[in-house]
Structure formats: structure tokens, C-alpha cells
Design a protein that fits this description.
By secondary structure, this protein is an alpha+beta fold. It has three domains: 143 residues, no CATH class; 55 residues, SH3 type barrels; 85 residues, Alpha-Beta Plaits, CATH 3.30.70.100. 54% of the residues lie in helices and 15% in strands. The chain has eleven helices and eight strands. The protein has a five-stranded antiparallel β-sheet. Helix 9 packs across helix 10. The longest helix is centred in the N-terminal third of the chain and has 29 residues. The chain is elongated and about 105 Å long. 20% of the residues are buried.
């Protein structure tokens, strides 16, 4: 006991609680670890005073109800519950920060904070002010149903965002490709939507419910290296082995492609006019695909020009030349079959 009268522990708890709030705000959000230490120290001090004073944080005893300091007793318990909530939230924030994924877990953190505050609010109403919680919960349930029916689309986005966050299909900074062909890097996720930064530096805002229903390919997993297959048709004037060696030399001379894993050349098809080869190479990230392909195409042209190889004409060009030679009008120009070639 700190004394025969309960007023002393309540005064100390109020002073500790208010001092903790002031210091907590002075520290600012830039120091989460320091904030958590302050919260733990003040909460431990308030709990120690409650224990030494024989005061229960869950209910007011008869002596307190008869005394004039009932307001002091209630404020002390409210501050104790508030510091309990802040301490729990501080542990959650530190845990997320130590995992080095504070932005990805933003939705989950907000959900936990909301649950903590709701639980503390119900505890204060029931234990400190003695109000019945059951009717309040029942009324809140009816109100929640009405709000849920009015906000179906918004709630679908919210719960889809929670599901995507818990499923960890992607994180901030990942490059994803949707089923409709949209590509971009995850720039931001919130309760309602996910923002993609495309290669054209445009922001695509996708509702979470739409994103959860679409097929999605994460191009950043297991890493951001990305394979590209580029088809090239070379005139069949040299043996396929010569063409293969030349294309390998093209890939090895490129600076914008990744050398490990090594690039490769696949001979796909051959006919009397052309050899079809497929250049397979890897780039460091999906964002560098265009620059790498531009370099490869330029090197293919230069190497073919230097080594006496010619790129094959596409079938459409051959059909156009043949039609002109036959005197056919442009309206009936058609692709040639293999037998006509």
C-alpha cells in the first residue's frame, strides 16, 4: 500500500500517464524504438503503482464509488488502458520494422492497430465506466451490417487487399504482369487499391478486388532476371552452323544482357529461302528489356552486314513481289504457299 487513501496512487498514475503522452509526442514518429522504450517504462511504472496501491484496472471498488475522487480514479484507469494499447502497437511496429518490410505490411499493421484500439475501447467502457457491453456489441453488429451492405464494393477492395498482403503474392518494388498484359512495378498498396508504375512512367490504379481476380505473373521472383526470345530469319545462303556461330557472337558482344546464365541460339526451322533462329538471352530486370532488344537487333544487322549474310524477306514481301511480276492487282495479293515458293 502506498497509503490508506487511494488518492495518492491515482494521482501518481495520472501524472505518469500525462507525462508519458507528452514525451511520446515530443519524440516524434522518426524514433519508433525510443517511443517503444518510453511506452514500456511509463506503462510499467503505472502498473507498478496500481499493484502497490492494491488498485484493480478492471473495476472500481465500493470505496472509490463513495469518494469524491471517482473522476480521478476513472481517468487513471483510462490512461492505463491507453498506455497498454500504445505499448502493444509499439511492439507491432517494431516487429514490422525489424523484418525490414514496413511498407508491405501497412494494411496488416492498420488492421492490428484497429483491433487493439477497439478492444481497449470496449474494455474502458465495460470495466472503467461499468456500462453493459453486450447491447453495445449487438447494436454495433446491426450498424456494421447496414454499413457493409452500403459499402460492398469498398469492403471487397479492403478484404482483397488484406488477402493479397497475407498471401504475399508481391511486395513493394516487384514488377508484375497482369492477365490482360498490363505490366508495372508495385509503387504503393493501400486499403482500396494498388498502384502500378508502368514502363511509360504512368501510374495505373487497380482496385484490390480486381487485382485479386486477375491472373498475375510476378516477374521479380525468384529474382528480376528476365528471359527474352527474339526470332530472326536469315537468308539460307550459309550453313546453319555458320548462322548459329554468328548469332552466338552477336549475343556475346552485347553489353546490356546478362552473361550468366549464358545466352543461347536455337535453330527453329529452315526452308529454301530462310533459316529461322531464336536468340535466347537474359536481362537484369524487366525494365531493361527494350534497351537490350534494341542492342541485340542492331548487332544482328551489323554482324550480318560484316559477314556477308542477308536477312530473309518476310513471306508477305515475297507474295507482293510475285503478284507484281504476274500483273495481279494489289487487291488480290495473297501469301504464297510453301509449294508456290
Amino acid at each position: 500500500m502506498l497509503g490508506e487513501h487511494h488518492s495518492l496512487p491515482f494521482v501518481l498514475i495520472n501524472l505518469l500517464g500525462l507525462a508519458g503522452i507528452v514525451i511520446w509526442h515530443i519524440q516524434g514518429r522518426s524514433r519508433p524504438t525510443g517511443r517503444l522504450i518510453v511506452q514500456i517504462l511509463f506503462f510499467a511504472g503505472m502498473s507498478l503503482v496500481l499493484g502497490l496501491g492494491g488498485v484493480s484496472p478492471y473495476r472500481l471498488d465500493d470505496a472509490e464509488l463513495r469518494e469524491a475522487g471517482i473522476l480521478l480514479a476513472k481517468s487513471a484507469r483510462v490512461l492505463w488502458w491507453l498506455h497498454l494499447a500504445w505499448t502493444l502497437i509499439g511492439f507491432v511496429q517494431i516487429y514490422i520494422t525489424l523484418n525490414h518490410k514496413p511498407r508491405e505490411a501497412h494494411l496488416l499493421q492498420d488492421l492490428i492497430v484497429g483491433v487493439v484500439y477497439l478492444g481497449v475501447a470496449l474494455a474502458v467502457i465495460g470495466f472503467v465506466f461499468g456500462a453493459p457491453i453486450s447491447p453495445l456489441v449487438a447494436t454495433s453488429g446491426v450498424v456494421a451490417i447496414i454499413i457493409g451492405l452500403a459499402l460492398q464494393n469498398t469492403l471487397a477492395d479492403v478484404f482483397s487487399g488484406i488477402a493479397l498482403t497475407l498471401g504475399r503474392a508481391y511486395v513493394i518494388g516487384d514488377w508484375i504482369q497482369l492477365g490482360d498484359g498490363t505490366e508495372g512495378r508495385i509503387a504503393e498498396t493501400n486499403w482500396r487499391s494498388t498502384n502500378l508504375l508502368t514502363g511509360g512512367h504512368n501510374v495505373v490504379v487497380l482496385p484490390n478486388s480486381v487485382l485479386a481476380k486477375q491472373g498475375m505473373t510476378n516477374l521479380s521472383r525468384p529474382d528480376e532476371t528476365h528471359w527474352i526470345a527474339l526470332a530472326v530469319h536469315v537468308a539460307a545462303t550459309q550453313p546453319p552452323s555458320v548462322v548459329e556461330d554468328l548469332m552466338l557472337a552477336v549475343l556475346r558482344s552485347c553489353e546490356r544482357i546478362v552473361k550468366i546464365p549464358p545466352p543461347s541460339v536455337a535453330l527453329k526451322a529452315i526452308d529454301a529461302m530462310a533459316i529461322e533462329v531464336e536468340l535466347q538471352f537474359c536481362v537484369a530486370s524487366p525494365a531493361s528489356r527494350m534497351l537490350a532488344k534494341n542492342e541485340v537487333i542492331d548487332r544482328v544487322y551489323r554482324h550480318c552486314k560484316t559477314n556477308g549474310l542477308s536477312l530473309a524477306m518476310p513471306p508477305e514481301s515475297l507474295s507482293w513481289v510475285t503478284a507484281i511480276a504476274r500483273g495481279e492487282p494489289a487487291a488480290i495479293i495473297r501469301p504464297l504457299s510453301s509449294s508456290e515458293v
